[in-house]
Give the backbone structure.
Amino acid sequence: MAVVRRTARDIRSDSRLDVLHVVLSSSEITRNEIAQVTGLSAATVATVVGELLAVGILVETKVSLGLVGRPTATLAMNPAGGSVVGIDVAETYVRAFLFDTALNQVGFVEIERDEHLLAPDLMVDMIGEALDRLLEQEQVDRDQVRGVGVSLPGLVHSSAGPSVLVPHWAWRTVDLEHLRERVALPLVIDNPLKAIATAELWLGRGRFCSNLVTVNLGTGVGAAILLEARIARGATNSAGEWGHSLLVLDGRPCRCGRAGCVEAYVGVPGIQQTLREIDPEHALLDIDLQRDFIGAMAAAAEADEPDPAVSETIARTSYFLGAALADLVAIINPEAVTLTGWTAWALGEHLLPAVRQHVREQAPGLSGSDLELAMSTVRGNSVATGVATLALERYLADEGLITTRTPLAL
């Protein structure tokens, strides 16, 4: 394997990203404080900050006058630097979010979609419609948009080009090219796990943990992994497909074609199957849409009169999730594991106590004893936030400020 040599330009790029991460996570901060947090020299910080001020990414918010020496300026991300869009495409919806360049959410559009209609051309049109609606709703001109990020489940990258490897999603490189044409703005595509990892790195626990796993719970499940403060992508961008690791030998059939996958037990269809095994005639099993089913599960769990079948379903799901996480903890040895995704937001408080116990009991040695297990601190839609952040990184790369580009930029 060829060794990639780092240039002075790459080092300067990393310094800019370090400064941006610190400013973004601190809201307001001085140059001296940036140097203390990052470990960069005062001269390097001064140079990098000057460059970012010149292109309008950072802004000086106020100046404090001391008794001696020069005035001290406070720095922040510049929300007036334009807009970026993050679009989360899932089995049951398309959600488009508008952010300013300080990554504050300023607008949102959602289009519910039939989870059985998966033709790429229909989905491309739906993504384009969501983008058009969002910009019209927020009265944003297209020339103000610095970039658009789109998250597609199962997106991988190979020598033959990017493709979507999700059962029944027959996307090819040509379909992704049609998406680029429909969006007609600087575009980055990536899969949800890499988007979540990016959001955690910029805005969540990844600011404080070098080794972190964020588990996304929804129709499918997966693990966004940070190793030594870097996103684990793997050879084809498919690292983190923990949902298709083995939980039960010769267990339930999974949509990937295997039997006994984690997803078959803690993905929404798996939770439905658990309830079906407990009470085949339960009324919640008549709910057609997955999001409505999970919402009804949460309502039943919070009701004054407990539903025994729902309580047992949550208990079994906690056991499955805890056992699967114990394997992940054994392999990754993270400092923290966080949960995100629409199932986690609905059921997390009911799952977490038992999941913590199961992880501690089943993780080998002491790997689970000091582990932090909690909900993600990235609020809202972390997939859309993360993929919008990737779009912002792409914009910075186009401006010549960083050399790190996502391999799935179009």
In short: The two ends are 26 Å apart (CA to CA). The first strand starts at residue 29 and ends at 30. The chain is about 40% helix and 20% strand.
